[in-house]
Amino acid sequence: MAITHYVKAAVSEYTDKTGANKKRYQTIGIIMDTKHGKMLKLETIPLFALKEGSLLCYLNEPEEKPADGHVSRDVNLSNIF
Fold it and tell me: Which of 8, 12, 19 is nearest to 57 (CA)?
């Protein structure tokens, strides 16, 4: 079963350094291709993100992994301490 999409939902909001409102997204499940068709697997349901009894989600295609398998992320730890 191959993963075709990641299911992501906006779970909170915050204000960045420039004062712009942003949303935090969390992967809550996956969509897979099976021999019987597409299948949705929900791994979590963020109840605190429900708006008027419903949850809107995005379907994001998996990102390509680099050849070495390492995902680099720029992390600035100066703001933590």
Answer: 8
